[in-house]
Amino acid sequence: MASLTVNGQTYQIQSDPSTPVLWLIRDVIGLKGTKYGCGISVCGACTILVGGTPQRSCQITMADINGAPVTTIEGLSADSSHPLQQAWIAHQVPQCGFCQSGQILRATQLIANGKIPSDADINVTMNNICVCGTYTRMRAAIHSAAGG
Amino acid sequence: MRYAAAIAARRASSAALSPSADRDPSCDCEPCAARAAHGAGVGLNRRNFLFSGVAACGGLLIGVGVPGRARATGGTYRITAWVSVGTDETVTILSGSQEMGQGIYSALAQIVAEELRVDWPQVQVGPAPLAAVFDNPLLGAQTTAGSSSVRGYFSALLEAGAIARQMLIEAGAAAMGVKPKACVAAGGKVVVKATGQSVTFGSVAAAASQLKPPKKATLYSNSGFVLVGQPVPRPELPAKVNGTAVYGSDVVVPGMLYGAVLLCPTRGGTVATMGPAPSGSQAVNLGTGIAAVANAGPNGTTWTAMQAVKQVKVTWSLPADAAQQTSKIILSEAETLLVSGNAIVAETVGDVASAQAGAAKVLTLTYILPYVPHTTLETPNCTARVTARTCEIWASTQAPAGAQAVAASITGLKPQAITVNCMQMGGGLGRKLEQDFVAYAVIASKALGVPVQLVFPREQDFTQDQYRPMAVCRVTVGLDKSGRIVSWDFRNVSPSILYQRGYIVDGQLDDQATEGATGLPYALPNRLMDWVRHPATVPVGFWRSVGNSINAFACESAVDEAALASRTDPLAYRQGLLAGNARALAVLNQAAALGGWGVTRQGYANGLAYHEQFGTLAAVVVTITETSGVIQVLNVACAVDCGMVVNPDTAAQQIEGGIVQGLTSALWSQILFKNGIAQTSNFDNYRMMRMADMPTVEVSLLQTPGAPLGGLGEVGVPCMAPALANAWAKLTGKRLRTLPLFPKG
Ligand code: FES
Ligand code: FES
User: Fold this and answer.
1) Ligand 1 within 6 A of CB of A23
2) Which of A113, A136, B152, B684 would staple B136 via disulfide (CB 3.0–4.6 Å)?
3) Closest ligand 1 atom to the C-alpha of A57?
4) CA dihedral in degrees (B613, B619, B625, B629; nearest 10)?
5) What distance in Å separates the CA atoms of residue B38 and residue B27, rounded to the nearest whole number?
6) Cβ contacts of A108 within 8 Å, gap of 6 or more
7) What contacts A83, CB < 8 A, 6 or more positions away?
8) Where in chain A is the domain with CATH 3.10.20.30?
9) pLDDT by residue (tens digit) across B105-163?
10) How far is the C-alpha of B710 from the C-alpha of B712, rounded, in Å?
């Protein structure tokens, strides 16, 4: 049995070790904010933070995580108070919202440690798909969350 | 099956429904029902769903105010079908339309709240249960399609808000010992006009809920709008940034097992034989494919099911025409049909033949469009719990009544025994009008006797879609010596969404295929628009803006080509074609101004397109450049006039989103078929707009007081392809008449 720490809570996992972390989070632990979009590490809907770094969870296993703590969208803040969550609301970013957990977690990297990202930084880092096309608002929200 | 509600939406303003379209499924066996469901699309049987005895929808109520607002113990009182008021002053408004990203929870609730006179933070919104009272008046059904929600519900919701407010006032007046006439409603309170004394809605909710609704609604908004027109925040967004929004695929039902589908790769094929499921899972024959459902336990995950479904040995019965369902063959058939097919006239004005004979110059322009998938980010999915007596469904669906009808035909239960819980959608785009995914979940739950959540793996979403139809459009334009259009002959050859579903018979017009090519706003004194049905059997369906995005590409490219042939600036040319149409000119000129039309810069070019649909006018100016043959889209300026805007922020979002979908589909999207098998199966070989590809986007919403309300959900899409092709022609001198414009990405 292996243990997986998600949002500060440790779970004993008995599932097949080849199960991608996405499905452990969604179907075993029951946190549904992390989404399935492609299963092949291309769309970014399944993005989580592993030891604080954004990673796509649909193609990584417990072994890849190697005990590092995982943060999902549910654990980003207790009360939606993370600057990105606040900026996302202020700019009314989401449409269907299905990509947004992944987008927000992806964006954490851009503003970590007081960084002020440029548009070019945003272009490089924010490479998750949003079918609804909320890119312009995400860009604006990232800038305002960064205080830039 | 009766005519699809989505179609009704599109036709409501023009044509009458054809009675010949009624069709009853003759066979209820499971594979047949599944196939019928697959073909049925948004079809639904009004007889089946007029009955309204369905319990409240399971969707969550969502409020702007405080996330997870604690409910007071005093309870909530239903004032009318649409409005409930809690003793904690929470006002719950139900939405007849489903939330799929378009912000309909704010727009519709705003209309009710306008007349109720409550403050927006008091409002929470959730999906209405399936009942006739909640039907969209424009559709005659509770279907979310055809950019029809605000247009359809507007008057009904003003009245619904007013009726509830009148009841609250009556109760409040009684509580204060004054006449209702002495009171007004404001800020969620009943206020005595003379004294300012007031009671809150919450404090009189219980009493109001006992009153008889007044017969006549008195509209406060006759003297102007307060909340309508305001960019109020969307009530469901807080849950979308903290992971608590519950989509169809997030539903957890006690005892539920996770499953995944695998349908016959060759479209139209069925299961011949099915082997056993690998250990730890069970297999179900769905007729057109199979499902694997993972057993409970630590490996009871969607992933296990996705692996298992690929391990079941299946042999398929393939349709006789499989080899014909190959893109190259389909295209060459279309080219033959263009010349020799049986064309059905959709519109004819003046005398095209003699005008063309007398033309100084004739342009014959042929445009080719591919099949395009929907790719909603949430793949189709449904959760079903079928018992001997009941069936409960949780689905992200644009057509809950259709889901109910399909479940009824599979289970043999009466519609009253079937509850549809409408979940938020991770994108709709027309894909979730279909009932295939609902049918499969119901079949699986019925077969296994347990609740089942069935998900389409992304590969199944790509390869088992009902695509935007391929099309070949030929525009023959006759110009006089001065370059004016004297004849306009537009022929569209495409597979028919309506014919494939049995809604029309051979020889009948599919007006979904011709929409956006008839009733053009331009001064075209001699014009003919006709359509030839392509018999290809690759399943086609409703794709955001349907025929509009096909026909606008041909039409607006051709207008540009005519302008260039007559050495006229494309903006001036269109201004000439729209002369005297002040509303259209305002939209056109606004887009031109916003997009910097006429500003020339070496290495850059603008492209223009104008299109009307769903009663809304739209114009787009794109600015592009190019590096070693690769296009870069720098800016998109869009002006839109939909009459009146209920929520300018969500309206802008819809246009912004439509622009992005229009860009993706125009630049790169296509699904090719070989022997009936889709050749693209995931996002790794299907390019979509990402952040780094994004142009800047500017949207300008014009309003025309007194004009009928127009739709907004789809209007961002159609102008994009022609605007890009027009810009590319200007920049490079090369005219691209085939979509996608850049198939290699
Ligand atoms: S689901 Fe993991 S990247 Fe798409
Ligand atoms: S908000 Fe719908 S996919 Fe991004």
Assistant:
1) no
2) B152
3) 2
4) 20
5) 14
6) A49, A54, A76, A82, A84
7) A111, A145, A146
8) 2-74
9) 999 999 999 999 999 999 999 999 888 899 998 888 889 988 899 899 999 999 999 99
10) 7
What six digits make up the tokens of B64? 């702007």
Asked if B681 reaches chain A (Cβ–Cβ under 8 Å), the answer is no
Task: Tell me which of B377, B667, B690 to substitute to probe the interface with A (most A C-beta atoms closer than 10 Å).
Answer: B377
B485-495 and B527-534 as β-strands: parallel, antiparallel, unpaired?
parallel
Answer for the pair B84, B76: CB distance below 8 angstroms, yes or no.
Answer: yes
Yes or no: say if B288 and B39 are a contact pair by the CB < 8 Å rule: no
What is B327-372+467-732's CATH number, 3.30.559.10, 3.30.365.10, 1.10.150.530, 3.40.50.300? 3.30.365.10
Q: Is B534 helix (H, G, I), strand (E, B) or coil?
A: strand
| Predicted ipTM of the assembly | 0.98
The hierarchical CATH code for the domain B71-242 is: 3.30.365.10
C-alpha B460/C-alpha B464 separation (Å) is 5
pLDDT in tens, B407-440: 999 999 999 999 999 999 999 999 999 999 999 9
Calpha distance A60→B203 (Å, rounded): 54
Check pocket membership of A21 for ligand 1, CB cut-off 6 A: no
Q: Tell me which residue of B145, B152, B738, B739 sits closest to B497, measured CA to CA.
A: B145
| Coil, strand or helix at A55 | strand
Class of domain A2-74: alpha beta
Q: What are phi and psi of B205, to 5 degrees?
A: -60, -45
CATH homologous superfamily of A83-145: [2Fe-2S]-binding domain (1.10.150.120)
Which residues from B are below 8 Å from A100, CB to CB?
240-241
Mutation for testing the A interface, residue in B649, B691, B698 having most A CBs under 10 Å = B691
Q: What share of chain B is helix, strand, coil (3-state, %, to 5)?
A: 35, 25, 40
